[in-house]
Amino acid sequence: MNSIAIDGPAGAGKSSIAKALSKKLGYIYIDTGAMYRAVALFFLDNNVEDGNDAKAEELLEKLDISIKYENGIQKVFLNGDDVTDKLRLEQIGKFASKFSAIGSVREKLVALQRKLAEKENVVMDGRDIGTVVLPKANLKIYLSASSKIRAKRRYLELLEKGFKDLDINIIEDEIIKRDEADMNREISPLKHAEDAYYLDSSEMSIDEVVSKILTMVKEEK
Length: 221
What we know:
The chain is of the alpha/beta class. The protein has 2 domains: about 1-25 and about 120-220, 3-Layer(aba) Sandwich (Rossmann fold), CATH 3.40.50; about 30-120, P-loop containing nucleotide triphosphate hydrolases (Rossmann fold), CATH 3.40.50. The chain has helices at about 15-25, 30-45, 55-60, 90-100, 105-120, 130-135, 145-160, 170-185, 205-220, and strands spanning about 5, 30, 65-70, 75-80, 80, 120-125, 140-145, 195-200.
């Protein structure tokens, strides 16, 4: 099976690019971030807001996450229920980073992610795909963009969703804090794999980035 790993900070365009790339290649797209958001949803539904809470470890035994594909689109199931549409809520995203730092959570989800990659040709995006999940991926990309550009993208995305009274400076501050948390966590921190290509998407469209990666795919064969 062939695998492409795309890592990078929040707002760099990983998901949009990974989805477009998977369609071009006929690969399965695996959104690992959605899996961690499902964990956050599970904990919040059970009134746990702190990853250090002893209750979190106990609840993990009752956590069952599975992935299914409908017409090539990933669906995330939490204890048998399709929670895909709930995972993009702002609150869920904020807590996902906190809970993803729990070692037992990462261990559980990394095993699932690897199992998926063993069965299909995949494009997988996240924070530690090239360094931890798929260290032997056929192609590794580290996708980034300036914090200002990422804040602008997030601002426009929230406007489209109907959010009002937005402050782009606050959004940028939150992105910078998220970067620091992701890069400095003890378990599987966000970092550029030594054998990954670095791509700055600040001044590039999705199509331009996808085209660039497709060229890399051809060169790697």
